[in-house]
Amino acid sequence: MDLSSINPVLLLASLMVAATPILLAAIGELVVERAGVLNLGVEGMMITGAVCGFVVAVGTNSPWLGFLGAAIGGALLSVIFGFLTQLLLSNQVATGLALTLFGLGLSALMGQGYIGIKAPEFPDWHIPLLGDIPVIGPIVFQHDPMVYVGLVIVAGVWAFLKYSRAGLILRAVGENHEAAHALGYHVVRVRMLAIMFGGACAGLGGAYLSLVRVPQWTEGMTAGAGWIALAIVVFASWRPGRLLLGAYLFGGVTVLQLNLQAAGAAIGVEYLSMAPYLATIAVLVIMRAGRAPGSLGQSFHASR
C-alpha cells in the first residue's frame, strides 16, 4: 500500500464535497423533526430530487434550473407525506417508509431515458484572493457553489431556530403541539411548511449527487444517503452545529476509504465500502444523543 499517493489537501477538499448531499438532506430533516414530525422518506425525496434535477438540467442545459427543479420535486413529494400524516393522520413511520419506496420506483421510471447521458457542467468557484491562500485556499475556497449554499442553509437554520419568532413557534410546536395550539398557533400549517422545506433540501441533496458528484443519472444512486442523513440528525441532537460536524465526519470517512482503495490497501473493497456506515453506527452508539423534541412522531388532532 502506497500512502504517499494520498494528498492530504485534496483529501480534505474532497471531504467537503462528499459531505454536501448528506448535509443538505440532514438539515432539512432537522427542521422537520424540530417541528415534531418524523419523516423516514428522506431517501425517497433525495432520489426523486436527483432524477428531477437531472431531467431539468439536461433539458434546459442549466444546472441551476436543475437544482431548482430538484427542490420543487422533493417538496412536492413531501407534500404527499404531509397530506397523509397531518391531514389524514396516517402513521408517520409507515408513511415515510412508503414514501421512500414510492420515490425509488418513481425515479427509476422517470430516469429510464436518461441513463448514460452526461449532466451539463457545473464549474467550481475559485474565490479571488481567498482561493490563493496556501493549503486553506484549495480546501475551503475552491469548490462548486452548492457547497457554500449548504453551509449558508445550515447557518440560516441555526439563526432561524435560535433568534426568530417563527423559529420559536416551530420549536414550540415540536415540543408540545397541544400547548402551541392552545396559544393560537396553527400546528398543521407550521408542520406542513417544515415538511416542504425538508423535502426541498432533500431534493437539493439528491441533485448534488446527479449533477455534481457523478455527474449522471444512475438508478438508486443515493445508495442509503437518506438513511445516513436521518442518523446524523439524531447524532447531532437536533442541533445544526453538531449536524455539520456529523456530515463532515461521514464525508471524511467516505473519502478516506476511496483513497485507501486507490492506494491499494490490503483490505477488501467490500469492507472499505462499509466503513462510512460502520463509522456512523459507532458514533451513534458512543455519542449520547440529546433529548428529542417532545412531540416528535405524534399526530396532532385539532378536535382535542
UniProtKB/TrEMBL annotation:
<dbReference type="Pfam" id="PF02653">
    <property type="entry name" value="BPD_transp_2"/>
</dbReference>
<dbReference type="GO" id="GO:0005886">
    <property type="term" value="C:plasma membrane"/>
</dbReference>
<keyword id="KW-1003">Cell membrane</keyword>
<keyword id="KW-1133">Transmembrane helix</keyword>
<feature type="transmembrane region" description="Helical">
    <location>
        <begin position="64"/>
        <end position="84"/>
    </location>
</feature>
<feature type="transmembrane region" description="Helical">
    <location>
        <begin position="266"/>
        <end position="287"/>
    </location>
</feature>
<feature type="transmembrane region" description="Helical">
    <location>
        <begin position="217"/>
        <end position="236"/>
    </location>
</feature>
<protein>
    <submittedName>
        <fullName>Nucleoside ABC transporter membrane protein</fullName>
    </submittedName>
</protein>
<feature type="transmembrane region" description="Helical">
    <location>
        <begin position="192"/>
        <end position="211"/>
    </location>
</feature>
<feature type="transmembrane region" description="Helical">
    <location>
        <begin position="243"/>
        <end position="260"/>
    </location>
</feature>
<feature type="transmembrane region" description="Helical">
    <location>
        <begin position="135"/>
        <end position="161"/>
    </location>
</feature>
<keyword id="KW-0812">Transmembrane</keyword>
<dbReference type="InterPro" id="IPR037294">
    <property type="entry name" value="ABC_BtuC-like"/>
</dbReference>
<feature type="transmembrane region" description="Helical">
    <location>
        <begin position="6"/>
        <end position="25"/>
    </location>
</feature>
<dbReference type="InterPro" id="IPR001851">
    <property type="entry name" value="ABC_transp_permease"/>
</dbReference>
<dbReference type="GO" id="GO:0022857">
    <property type="term" value="F:transmembrane transporter activity"/>
</dbReference>
<feature type="transmembrane region" description="Helical">
    <location>
        <begin position="37"/>
        <end position="58"/>
    </location>
</feature>
<feature type="transmembrane region" description="Helical">
    <location>
        <begin position="96"/>
        <end position="115"/>
    </location>
</feature>
<keyword id="KW-0472">Membrane</keyword>
